[in-house]
Amino acid sequence: ALSSSLVSTRLQSSLAGNATATSSSTIQIPIYKERKPTDVLRALEGTIKRDPTAPHYKYIDDPYLIPVSQSTKRSYALAKEAGRKAAMWIRQELSYLFDHRVMDPVIESFLPKIEYTSKDQVSEEVLKKVIKDANPSDALTIYKLLEEQVSVETKSELFQLLCYYNNEEPLSEELMANKWFKNDSKTPSWKPCSETDKLFAFLKEQGGKIAADAYSAMICGNAKYMNAERAWQLSEEADRLNIPLTIEAYNYIISLATAITDNGSERKKIVLNTMKKIKELGLEPNIGTLNSALKVTSRMNRNNAEEFCRLLFGEFKSIGIEPSLASYYYALKTFYRKDSPACSLLREIMNKIKNKAFVAQSKADTLFFPFAMDVAANIIIDPELGDQIHKLLLTGDNYNFIGNNFGENIYYRHYFMLQAQNCPIDAFMNNYYDVIVPNIYVPEPMVMNAILSTLEFSDPDISREYLARIWSHMVQFEHLERKNLVSKALNLMRVHCKPDKNSPFNAIFADAAWTVWKYVLLQQERRIQTLNWEGRILGDMAILCLRADEVDNSATIVTYLLEKQSSTIGVPDFEQLDILLDGFIMKCFAPPTMDLVAYCAENDFPEVPGMVEKIESNLSLTEWQHNRLRSFVDANEGSKKKPRI
């Protein structure tokens, strides 16, 4: 009781002291920090260690359902997206079934899209909302239903929307796989639209800011969608009428220099004159201004371009504009050309921006990482520099700047070629290949060829195990139709990575050879053959089967070699044929030895008599077999004077 009373007394005195301290101090409310809806999820994600071997979340994490080739990755992702499209179509076509609104607040993305068919459904407020939601087709429909009776400001907003999207519906944000696999190689083109032209004709007559915004939007739209002549004409018209444009319009005017003239001096003059105009109007240049100027600079001749590039970086730094990834990309394009001398610019850039998380400033930001890795791999040839670039890519959200599937493949192609050609094979496989393949990147044939070359120049005992793994991946990645890869891999199995007699690798390599055999025969049955047999490939396959004691399979290949000479390109080396002959003799299997001698006789190999002598000395033959061998020797003697093709 005494102890509990003492504790109570101490607690009361402590609380009293705290109350006094609190009452005497001022309560400071912390500054409000705005957080995004996903910040908590990101914080939770940061507590989980990433598994580099895990598939992308868009694929089902099941060993039988994880795609391992580039084609299946694309097919699986787009198939899932096709299901999403089908659901969206059903929701729209049967919209009356989805009219329940149980959520509060209402999530409009879950609701069917409203179809505007009558004037009673629309108003200027509805039009403004649709414009804000960036829906050009619906906005144009509502505008027509309103019989164009809307305010000038709303017309201006609609016009800007139509110019920005080129009168096309933008790809839904929900269809991420379509964007990822979309081929951007097609050059966009400006699509004429009567409504756009009518709006522009009306707005430019309004004068003041409305006219300036109309000219700016029209110039930006035409320049963005490669209608350079019209954009340049409008810029000259605006200049003649003293219409002040927006900074975005002037940025596009700068970028037009490459389309207007091929002369480097003229391009530079356009850039400088436009910047002078920006200064006279009191506009503030932005990162878009710098990138537009650098884009033009990267397409000027090297001597003028390098000096002008340095000048631009210095001038914009003096006014507090930090370069973006696109800025560095254009700088690299300027300094690293086929005729350029050695340059340390990429190293300087990497030292400046290492560990930096970038924010998207331009679509061209996505071009930096693939091109930087290209420079590191093919010009500088520095594996450590390649690792620095990759570390920067994995910093923060920088991986978003890899662009799309095409850009990612280019990036990893250069990265793998760089490391495969300059690293020991065990370091390459452990630090790069096993971490990235196949869930992030599937090596293309040229990369696989580089890896096989590295195996060829590595220790056979180390290469042997890795070759078996690489081969299994070649099968998975659908590389069996690549004759150069198949030939190189089989030859490595036979020569450089030759296993000991009792090694389990003999069976593995024989299985590889027979896999190729079955694959080609299946193609022939389907009449879609893409891999034509070569004599050397068949020779390697037969030897690999024979080493694993698969004599029947080896004999089948030899028989095919004899009977299908017209469909086989070239002949095996005599070394291969001699190895096969010795192997069949050791197995006391006479029939394929007959086929080998017959094949050599038909192809005028001078070693036929020696082969016959070896067979007769080591095998028990029938009289018919002896006579057949003698006929081959006689035929060979008769053709000695003929040149062998």
From TrEMBL:
The keyword Cytoplasm does not apply. It comes from Cotesia glomerata (Lepidopteran parasitic wasp). It is found in: Mitochondrion. Transmembrane segments: none annotated. Gene3D superfamilies: Tetratricopeptide repeat domain. The lineage of its organism: Eukaryota, Metazoa, Ecdysozoa, Arthropoda, Hexapoda. One of its GO terms (biological process) is regulation of translation. Its main location: mitochondrion. It comes from the Eukaryota. One of its GO terms (cellular component) is mitochondrion. One of its GO terms (molecular function) is rRNA binding. Belongs to the mitochondrion-specific ribosomal protein mS39 family. Keywords: Mitochondrion, Repeat, Ribonucleoprotein, Ribosomal protein, RNA-binding, rRNA-binding, Transit peptide, Translation regulation. InterPro entries: PPR_rpt, PTCD3, Rib_mS39_PPR, TPR-like_helical_dom_sf. This is Small ribosomal subunit protein mS39.
